[in-house]
């Protein structure tokens, strides 16, 4: 699953869980995103049986202009997980709109492949 | 130009067609969607807060309204806990936001909805007049509300869910519209630019729009018209330039040919002058040599006679005397040897006289046409070249030929050039040098064939050997004029000079008409 598709699905799930007030879904997403962010894993990327092997895939060059040697996509997962914890578990009444907002923005970035949060993270210095 | 094309092509293929077109639509979509989301959220938060603030009053009103409608429904009912009564009350209940309702009237209780822990109850006492028996009954409606936050959250979710669906529909609509309004015209312009970059200047952008794209397309077409006109003008100028260049080349060729002719004429003139000077000099020298030579020949003849006479006289005087016989025997060999020497001197003097006569004939006849036997011309020329012919195995074969009107000196010059070249080639071949010459006559031509067993004329030189100043000899050994002059002399006499060559040797053919041309 590509990063764009992942964001589209994640945004849709957030909106659907919010609509049906499916709290367990939020728990699942928080755990999933935290795991991907912490372990730097991509559980939705299937083993490359019919694709090129990892060895053949051209690795992105190490660019020294980045200040922080941490992938922006990985940081994005952690940020979403943290925001979900804050908005659905901690400050649910005050930040009721935040999961909705995240859902909409993730869904839009899935359509347009432009994620403002990822751009911001890259601007900060993430890889 | 090629680099520009390749670069353009690469840009069009790699960047614009694949990514750029998509990106502009995506960027616009993203910006519009972000704006829509921000506005939607603003509106939804505003609506949500207002709803939250007004909900208690609204629910109070709803409770009053529902109580009134329930009372009206019960006034028409049969005042029993029957399914019809329950159905009519349920119809009222579903129109309001309450989770559950207990309706108590005439010792009856009907419960509607689902009661779960945490619901907030509120009693609404009232009464109604039954139409069935015209009696007044007490009515108590207990409404059960969920927490207000839950109701608000439910309403918010419904609102934002609708917004989300609206955003999906709007995004699809937006992408389609941007594709149609922005990306498609760009694609048309890009394809047109690509065609122009590939050299197709006849392409035009068919875009009848009044917006910026229409203006851009119009200017693009006008630009192509202008470039096309300029290109046509440039082509015309280039064609003119090419025509001029061709004319110039033709003129240069003509000038070169004229220059060559001039050079040939000049060289011929120089050669003629040289030959004339040489002729005058030879004539003078010949005259000066001829007189003493005649003295020598005449006196040698007398000296020979005198020796013969002296020998006879001495033999007569000394005959009959043994001592005289002995003296005569001693003197006779000396007399014989002296006479022999005189004969040899006479022979040499005759040869000098012959050469001088040939030289004088050669010199005297320069330029003037005479009826001559070509064999004699050849012989007198070869006599001059005797020292050269001594180097080769020379064979000559003369047939009877008729007299022709020609310049003996000039034809002698031709013979001399060809024979000299033949000797040079035969010597250079590395084989035993052979040169042969033969003359014969056909009905129209008097032919001279001169063969040498040299290594032949190289193919690349064959077409140029009659050109002035063309020579295959090393620098300093040849002027390149000999065969050119010979060719012109033969032409002046109405004759032909030709050759056949192979690696075994070369034969030059001189053909002179039996009757001179003109």
Would you give an account of this structure?
The complex is a heterodimer of chains A (127) and B (518). Chain A is mostly helical. Chain A is globular, with a radius of gyration of 16 Å. Chain B is an alpha+beta fold and 518 residues long. The two termini of chain B are 64 Å apart. In chain B, the strands form three sheets. In chain B, strands 6-8-9-11-10 form a five-stranded mixed sheet. In chain B, strands 2-1-4-3 form a four-stranded antiparallel sheet, with helices on one face. In chain B, strands 5-7 form a two-stranded antiparallel ribbon. The N terminus of chain B is likely disordered. In chain B, strand 3 and strand 4 form a beta hairpin. Chain B has ten helices and eleven strands. At the A-B interface, helix 1 and helix 4 of A face helix 1 and helix 3 of B.
SSE layout and pairing:
The complex is a heterodimer of chains A (127) and B (518).
Chain A: H1 3-19, H2 23-39, H3 72-90, H4 97-112, H5 116-124
Chain B: H1 2-75, H2 83-93, E1 100-105, E2 108-113, E3 120-129, E4 136-145, H3 148-197, H4 212-318, H5 322-364, E5 370-372, H6 374-384, H7 386-389, E6 393-397, E7 404-406, H8 408-428, E8 434-441, E9 445-452, H9 459-462, H10 482-492, E10 496-502, E11 505-513
Parallel strand pairs in B: 6-8
Antiparallel strand pairs in B: 1-2, 1-4, 3-4, 5-7, 8-9, 9-11, 10-11
Helix pairs in contact in B: 1-2, 1-3, 4-5, 5-6, 6-8, 8-10
């Amino acid at each position: 699953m590509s990063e764009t598709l992942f964001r589209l699905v994640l945004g849709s799930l957030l909106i659907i869980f919010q609509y049906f007030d499916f709290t367990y879904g939020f728990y699942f997403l928080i755990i999933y995103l935290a795991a991907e962010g912490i372990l730097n894993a991509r559980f939705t990327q299937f083993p490359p049986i019919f694709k090129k092997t990892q060895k053949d895939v051209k690795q992105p060059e190490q660019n020294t202009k980045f200040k922080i040697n941490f992938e922006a996509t990985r940081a994005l997962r952690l940020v979403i997980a943290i925001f979900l914890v804050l908005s659905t578990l901690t400050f649910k009444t005050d930040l009721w709109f935040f999961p909705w907002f995240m859902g909409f923005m993730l869904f839009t970035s899935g359509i347009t492949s432009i994620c403002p949060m990822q751009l911001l993270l890259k601007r900060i210095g993430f890889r | 130009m090629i680099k520009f094309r390749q670069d353009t092509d690469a840009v069009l293929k790699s960047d614009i067609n694949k990514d750029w077109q998509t990106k502009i639509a995506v960027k616009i979509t993203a910006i519009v969607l972000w704006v829509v989301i921000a506005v939607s959220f603003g509106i939804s938060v505003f609506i949500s807060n207002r709803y939250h603030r007004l909900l208690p009053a609204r629910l109070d009103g709803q409770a009053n309204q529902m109580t009134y409608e329930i009372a009206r429904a019960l006034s028409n009912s049969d005042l029993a806990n029957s399914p019809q009564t329950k159905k009519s009350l349920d119809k009222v209940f579903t129109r309001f936001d309450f989770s559950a309702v207990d309706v108590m009237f005439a010792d009856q209780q009907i419960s509607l909805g689902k009661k779960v822990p945490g619901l907030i109850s509120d009693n609404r006492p009232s009464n109604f007049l039954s139409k069935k028996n015209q009696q007044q009954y007490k009515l108590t409606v207990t409404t059960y509300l969920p927490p207000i936050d839950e109701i608000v959250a439910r309403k918010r979710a419904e609102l934002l869910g609708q917004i989300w669906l609206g955003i999906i529909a709007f995004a699809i609509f937006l992408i389609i519209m941007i594709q149609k309004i922005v990306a498609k015209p760009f694609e048309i312009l890009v394809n047109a630019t690509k065609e122009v970059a590939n050299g197709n200047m006849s392409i035009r952008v068919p875009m009848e729009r009044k917006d910026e794209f229409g203006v851009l397309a119009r200017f693009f077409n006008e630009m192509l018209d202008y470039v096309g006109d300029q290109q046509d003008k440039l082509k015309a100028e280039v064609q003119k330039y090419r025509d001029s260049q061709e004319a110039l080349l033709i003129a240069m060729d003509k000038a070169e040919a004229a220059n060559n002719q001039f050079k040939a004429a000049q060289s011929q003139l120089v050669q003629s002058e040289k030959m004339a000077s040489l002729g005058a000099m030879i004539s003078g020298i010949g005259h000066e040599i001829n007189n003493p030579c005649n003295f020598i020949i005449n006196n040698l003849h007398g000296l020979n006679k005198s020796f013969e006479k002296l020998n006879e006289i001495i033999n007569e005087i000394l005959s009959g005397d043994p001592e005289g016989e002995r003296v005569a025997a001693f003197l006779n060999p000396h007399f014989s040897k002296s006479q022999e020497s005189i004969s040899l001197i006479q022979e040499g003097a005759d040869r000098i006289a012959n050469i001088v006569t040939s030289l004088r004939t050669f010199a005297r006849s320069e330029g003037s046409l005479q009826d001559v036997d070509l064999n004699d011309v050849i012989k007198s020329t070869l006599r001059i070249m005797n020292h050269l012919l001594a180097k080769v195995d020379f064979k000559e074969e003369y047939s009877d030929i008729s007299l022709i009107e020609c310049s003996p000196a000039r034809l002698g010059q031709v013979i001399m050039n060809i024979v000299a070249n033949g000797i040079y080639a035969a010597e250079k071949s590395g084989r035993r040098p052979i040169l042969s010459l033969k003359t014969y006559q056909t009905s129209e031509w008097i032919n001279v064939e001169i063969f040498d067993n040299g290594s032949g004329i190289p193919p690349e030189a064959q077409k140029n050997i009659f050109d002035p100043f063309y020579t295959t000899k090393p620098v300093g050994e040849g002027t390149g004029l000999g065969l050119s002059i010979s060719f012109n002399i033969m032409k002046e006499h109405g004759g032909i000079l030709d050759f056949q060559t192979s690696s075994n040797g070369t034969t030059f053919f001189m053909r002179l008409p039996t009757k001179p041309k003109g």
